[in-house]
Amino acid sequence: MKTILQSMLKSILPLGLVVMLSCSESYNIEIENRLMTLLEQKAYFELNSEYQMYKGEVSDKAKLLIEASLFNTFNKNKTSQARINALLGQENHELSDSIKAELRTIQADNYLKLFEYGKALETNTLILEKYSHVLDSSKIADLNTMSNIYRPLVDTRPQQVIIPSNEVVNIKRDKLGYINIATTVKGNNYDFIFDTGAGMSVIKKSFAQQLSLEILETSIDVKSATDKIVKSSLAVVDTLHIAGITVVNSVFLVMEDEMLEFPQVDFYPLAIIGFPIIEELGEFTISKEGKLKVMTPTEHTKWPNMRLESLSPRVFLYNGKDTLEYALDTGAKKSHFTKMYFDKYRNEIKQTGIVDTVTSYSAGGSQTAIAYKIAQIELFIGNRKGVLSNPSIYTEHSNTFEDVYGNLGQDLIAEFDYMTLNFRDMIIEFEIK
Length: 433
Description:
Blueprint: H1 29-40, H2 44-54, H3 60-73, H4 77-88, H5 97-113, H6 117-131, H7 137-150, E1 160-162, E2 167-173, E3 179-185, E4 188-194, E5 201-204, H8 205-210, E6 215-223, E7 229-242, E8 245-255, H9 257-260, E9 271-273, H10 275-280, E10 283-287, E11 291-295, E12 306-309, E13 312-318, E14 323-328, E15 336-337, H11 339-344, H12 346-352, E16 354-362, E17 365-373, E18 376-381, E19 384-389, E20 392-394, E21 406-408, H13 410-413, E22 418-422, E23 427-431
Parallel strand pairs: 4-9, 5-8, 14-21, 15-20
Antiparallel strand pairs: 1-8, 2-3, 2-11, 3-4, 5-9, 6-7, 7-8, 10-11, 10-22, 12-13, 13-14, 15-21, 16-17, 17-20, 18-19, 22-23
């Protein structure tokens, strides 16, 4: 099941950052402008690599600005906050209101991932009060939506995930092939979908009422993967268990039943375990044989090949020609490629592909789109190669997947015996026995 918050929950990163940050120390203007251009383009992997080589040649202010964004996207939220506080705490008239607004937006995103909802609301309110004049209407709408999430949660304690060492959880597939894990709530066992593509965990309203959850007063407009607006509210599950793992104070979006039910395929899920719980597992391996093993995170010396766009994992994989950015969605049965991919390889795709229509299902219903089918696409993860057969390449724009080249799902994962995600060092690895 594709993410329902990808287009709404975004880190709004600096625009127009190719500026001269005057300061007394000596620095290389050409290198600094090059790094700022990469930051503006959100080319984080290239930026990270070049910054490590050249950070001694840029100004202190540029270092703080770059590191605030890099630490945010590579899931080092407290460190990102420290860089932002250092920048904004200075008497600095050289930063424009646009850049200050972007920094505050990253700050709110950090607070969200740290489950500090009150501070996130304060930061959002400050942005709207001081910097609305530099934001367009869509960003203002996103900030208002996020405030509607934060406001009812200001007294909610941070989520905690308590994990025994090397816990093993059984996985099973539902009738549509989605990963399900047994979840215990209030002494009863239920199967919940396990979905890295869900920006927040989700529960249908009748089931929340069955569990006697308090539905918090708010109204949230969520854009689904089919670009439809879904009205939602919130509930907090005090305690749930996944095998021996205990999750405390987990926040769920509450949706009307019809938004999560798909009678056309006789599919009626109860709830979805989304990113905020999944990320807190730290490091885990999903095996083809049906096990999810949660372990103490390994310390990596490798460069990260995964980042976060707010609450959405993104991976950078090589396709034999280019290294491109994709969404990672364990809830998607089949991968697809976006209009960005189509535009990049348009001539080749038109020559070898066959025009088709593809129907996708998400919260709020279904959507049919025009796509090309081609024989295969190869993707390389380190020295491992996965082959996607007959993938769909969409020719139409999608707001949900507007800034990635595709959405990678279970068909890619099934190419390997093991997939390991490490959210501490932001590493994705695939292995074959």
